[in-house]
Amino acid sequence: MSQLEDELNAEATESEGAAARSPAALTAFRRGLSGVTVPILTTVIAFIAGGLIVLATGHNPLSTYSSIFNGTGFNWLFPWVGGAARATAAGNLQQTLIQTTALILVGLAVAFAFRAGMFNIGGQGQYTVGAIVAVWVGSSFAGMPAVLHIAFAIVAAGLAGAAWAGIAGVLKALTGANEVISTIMLNWIAIWLGVYCFQLGGPLQNPSMPSTPVSSNVVAGAKLPVFWGSAALQGLDVGIFIALALAVVFALLIKRTRLGYEARTVGFNPEAARYAGINVGRTWIRVMLICGAFAGVAASLDILGWKFSLFTNDIQTSQIGFYGIAVALLGRNTAGGTVAAALLFGGLLTGTSDRNINLSIDPTLVQYLTFMIEGIIVLLVSTDVITLRLLKGGQRIGVALGRRPRDVAGAGRGGGS
Amino acid sequence: MSVGTIAVAPSRAVSPKRIGVAGIVLGALAWVITIPPIEARGMAVPIVLAVVAVAAGAWSVGGGERKLGIEAIVVALLAVVGAAASAKSAVGTLESVFTWSALVAATLRYATPLLFAALGGVISESGGVINIGLEGMMLMGCFWGIYGADLLHSWVWGILVAMLAGGLLALVHAFLSIHLRANQIVSGTGINFIALGITGYFLEYHYGPNGTPLNISMVPNVKLPLIQHVGFFGAAVGDANLMTWVGLALVPALTFFLFRTRWGLRLRSVGEKPRAADTVGLPVLRIRYAAVIASGMLAALGGAYLSVGFVGSFSNDMTNGRGFIALAAMIFGKWKPWGALWATLLFGFGNAMSDRVSSVNPTLGTLFEALPYVLTLVAVAGLVGRSRPPAADGIPYIRG
User: Fold this and answer.
1) What is the pLDDT of residues B116-130, one digit of tens each?
2) Which of A45, A294, B2, B278 has the most beta carbons within 10 angstroms of its beta carbon?
3) Mean pLDDT within A397-403
4) In chain B, what are the domain boundaries?
5) Contact B190 A376 (CB under 8 A)
6) Which CATH architecture describes the domain B100-380?
7) d(Cα A293, Cα A308) in Å, to the nearest integer?
8) pTM of the predicted structure, to 2 decimals
9) Hey, which residues 89-128 in chain A have their CB within 8 Å of chain B?
């Protein structure tokens, strides 16, 4: 969570090439490792805690976790798995990667805001708005050439998400409104907007299915092509590449653009940024716009890649925005971390879903287990205690190199305005 | 000579501020006259009132009261929309939507859970700890309240178990925020996830797909003996739940505690200037712990009202964001109990309105469901006055 650490991490990495084996590089390498160690440790602790709860309610955590693991499809990577099991694993892995696609982007939507010192809890609403627009564009304009249609839908969804997040950004810039509350409220407003659109008699409800509260279907020309597995069995679509590309864009944005620099500076200390001449309000708005765009694109990839329509029930029960928060926090708000965390959660969601018929524990139970694990991860990430303990060894070296001791009071305030 | 250049200073009686307030009132009036009991028909009078309100707002802006003036103009414009809606609706429809006594009763029902949670938020933040986890604590109280009432066959036990559950979850939040000095907003978010997971897990584990049983002992309503059958008041407050009255009583009680007792002063000092409080010898960390646990218990009571006091069952994620609305109510109410009360009543009114609109127009009713959240957005945007949290709110305290 510490932007200071991320910033120093980034700078250390950049200097790595110049000083191959110097103490600075070694420290940077150790700190880079610790940057990976802490999330791994956090995850392990969270899974252990979840396992304890499973044990306390009379189920075997080991068999639970192993059946979840088999459901993720990661066992497809093991060369000794063959035959029918391999085919099942392949299907599961496709599902995991489908989930990962959206999680990467929603995670980035939260991560970028965190880097700028803001809490974007509004991923759910931005995703929803993006989904509404994506499904509308995807189901209209039937004659359009495929590439154009898909691009139009994705861009439109991104713009919708951006606008939705922009509301919170503008409110924060103009009135100082706490973006935690405003984004949460916008979430609910978006959900009700979606229910209104697709409910029976709603303006965007599917005219050919008058008794189902669902949107119209995305036309064939707007569906994302499937490249692994068959389209009929919901194989993996090219959306994953778009998500990964946008993760690279995120990394470039943070490290190599002026907006990224301004965002990080504002995240460190808005007052200092203001003193340095940065327009803090405008930075906030720009950051929120980009965050919303990420979330909106996530929705469009889901809609065009595998959902193809939107039920009001989907809108009301989706929790993807909140998974995005956990993904971003676990990934320490970096591009690589977010992708890895998204993969973990994608696996967890697939392994605990109804698809997994080999689950040794009731799937409904295990979905809530996922929430608990998620919550524990977020709790652990909220404190720097583990990080402090681990880095104590490196801290003496760090102080010698001029890094100031962790400012705990600042960490407590975090990014709230 | 220079007579023409001397600006006439506005006298106090017509200050821009008063004109702005008058503008807001007139704008609201433009709509209010079209609904029962006045039920003026036609758009003529509302439009006239709205125009005067806009003029007053513009004057106010020109006189320097920008926020009041803009509010007057916005209220006037919204009132015209409302008046148009009234004009389009039949008198009978309006009367069925605006049955004020039923609206008041519904407002109280919706406001009660919000009130408990908001009061919890006030206590926690008065002590300097941000409690975003109110939603999770409410949810815990909601589930464990009905679990306890079911298992131990009495709503009293349900309430107690709910308070215990909320307090325990709050203890986790307190430990993380106070001892481990976690980022309080992130830890609050984690608390919410955990509560969602725990309540859903044990709902499924203990009750299975059928959900909570029927006929669980519920918190009784208080039937006021004489008033109960008397017209407006009877329908409005004659049959309110016990917890509603407890919640309402808590408001002056907490105000008294916070502002007129020694421990209230100590709590507030810990939230404003913990360093000074420590110097005087107050146990800062322990007071904060107590504040957070109390807030968890109160939020849990709000959740328990939902399940054990009102609906009689529990379904997944039953609180549905109410904890966050309670937070907004706390901010709206400027971190004071009475303010929180008015805010929760306003939000409760929004919920009640959406119910009644749904009954006459289901499609429109869905949009109205978003009304409480829109009101909250308006509140946090400071359109009702910038408010200031306790000075040390959210900053972990480090001894020494």
Assistant:
1) 999 999 999 999 998
2) A294
3) 51
4) 12-89, 100-380
5) yes
6) Orthogonal Bundle (1.10)
7) 20
8) 0.82
9) 119, 121
